[in-house]
Amino acid sequence: MKTIEELNAIREKAKANMTVREDNEDLIRVIVGMATCGIAAGARPVLNGFVDEIARRKLNNIAVSQTGCIGMCQYEPIVEVIEKGKEKVTYVKMTADKVARIVSEHLVNGNVVTEYTVGAVAK
Amino acid sequence: MRELSLNILDIAQNSISAGASLIEIEIIENTAKEEMFISINDNGKGMAAEQVLNVTDPFFTTRTTRKVGMGIPLFKLAAEQTGGSLTIWSELGTGTKISALFKTGSVDFTPLGDISSTVTMLIVMNTDRDFCYRHSVDSREFTLKTQELKQILGDVPLSTPDVAEWLKSYIEEQTQIIHGGVLK
Predict the structure, then answer these.
(1) Are A89 and A77 in contact (CB under 8 A)?
(2) Is the predicted ipTM greater than 0.85, yes or no?
(3) For chain A, first and last CA: distance in Å?
(4) Domain that holds residue B19
(5) Contact A11/B154, CB-based, under 8 Å?
(6) Which of residues 7-26 of A touch B (CB under 8 A)?
(7) Has residue B141 been placed in a domain?
(8) Which of B13, B15, B127, B146 has the highest number of chain A CBs within 10 A, making it the mutation to test binding with A?
(9) In this predicted model, what pLDDT tens digit does every residue of B34-76 receive, in sequence order?
(10) I need a labelling partner for B76 at 20 to 30 A (CA). Which of A101, B6, B22, B110 fits?
(11) Contact residues on chain B for A64, CB-CB shorter than 8 A
(12) Which homologous superfamily does the CATH classification assign to the domain defined by A27-121?
C-alpha cells in the first residue's frame, strides 16, 4: 500500500538523479488540447500516454503541456509538436495507441508520422 | 462525456483558466440515499452575476466567455438526467463553486470513472497551483492536499515521473479503500 511517507524516499532518489533540463530553447514541446471538445473526444488518455512514454524512455528534452480549444473540434484529440527551427506538426484524431509511435519515430528520431497529421486526415 | 471524472477535469480547467491558485475538488457518496455530490471550488477571478445566469446556456457562449463553452451545460445535463441538479455560486474577485448532485440509482447515471487519472493529471500538469481533493463514501474518506505533498518533496516537483506514478497509485488505492475494497 502506498503511504505519504514514501514520498521522502522518492524525493531523495529524485534529487540524486536530477538532471539539468536542456536549454528551454531546445525543448521539444508537445501540446495537447484539453478543452471540453478535446476531453470529450479522449484527450486524457492521450496526454497520459505521452507523459508515461516520455518518462519511461527518460527523455529530458521533451515538455508535455496542455492548452485550450485549438479550433478544429472535429479533429480532436489534437496534439501539436513544436520544435525550434521546424514547422509545427499537428496530429489529429489521436488515441493512446498512436502515442508510442509518435514518440519513437518523431520525437526521438525526427521523422514526422505523416499519416496521423491533419494534412493526411483532412484530405 | 463517458465518465463524470472527465466532466470534473473539464470544469477544473475553467478554474485554471480563471487564474485560481487553489482548486478544491470534493466527492461525497451516500450509498443509502443513492446520491453522489460533486463540487469544484476555486479562488479564481470569479464571474459577474449576469454571467453566472448564462453559463449553463450552451448558446450564450461568446468570444469573451469562450472558456466556459459547453463544459458546464454538459455537467448540468449529466446531473439533471439522473434527477439531480447543478448549482453555481460565483463572485467577481473571490472565486467560483460549482456543485452537482447525482442520483446514482438512475439508469442515466454516468459512472465516476477513472478519477485517479483526472486528479493526477490536474496536479502534475499544474504544479504552480494547489489542489485539495477529498472523496468520501458514507463514513470513510480520504483527503489529498498538494500543499502537504510539496512540503515533503521540497525542491522535487510534483511532475517528477516517480511522484506522478505514486500519486496515481495512491489515489487508486485510497479510492478502493473508501469503497470498502480489499487490497492485494
Answers:
(1) no
(2) yes
(3) 50
(4) 4-178
(5) yes
(6) 7-8, 10-11, 13-15, 18
(7) yes
(8) B13
(9) 999 999 999 999 999 888 888 888 876 654 545 557 889 999 9
(10) B22
(11) 125
(12) Glutaredoxin (3.40.30.10)
